[in-house]
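User: Before I run my own analysis I want an independent prediction to cross-check against. Here's the chain; please return only the structure tokens and, at the end, one sentence I can use as a sanity check.
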Amino acid sequence: MSKQRHIRELALQALYQLDARGRDDFDQIEQSIKDAPHADDTKEKAIELAHSAWLVKDGADQLSNKFSNDWPVNRQPIVDRSIIRLACYEISSGLTPAPVMINEAVELGKSFGSEKSSAFINGLLDRIAKQIDAEGDIVQQLTDMTTRLPDQPLHSDLAIPVTQSESPADPPTPETATASTPPDIPTVTDPTSKPTPPSNQNTTP
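Assistant: Structure tokens:
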């Protein structure tokens, strides 16, 4: 496994914990990443990547809701929305080319999500990537419009608003990660089309 994959997996664990536990537990979340059995530079880069993705999550969530309004962010499993937030940041910031990042996100979905996560993530990110390609770093732009957060360094007293829609939970692992299943979102060429969830999907938020 490549070093960058390890960095993304650790960043995903941090994003998952931020979502599930809340920003007030950042010290413990950061320490859990530092305690992982990886090289120090890998862990440091993972923390920075998670921090950067979390700061622009509002923009990522807006894009996610735009192209999947029948399965909005608040109904997505924590694993899926964390992967989507991570991918949106990497694509929109220019850190990773869209085709490469979508493939990486799909692999993360296979490892940590439900059996339908990879298809959901692939289809949604395909649409989001087209929007980003047309408008540039729209994730940052949307975040700025929503929160006006400054670009702050990573430290434990960083004030980041958190919507705690889930109960505290352990970070995902390939063996333990389970989640409610989102509907399939096939890859499409028209970014304005919207997915329709199956009729038997549980609609309870």
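Sanity check: The CA atoms of residues 126 and 189 lie 8 Å apart.
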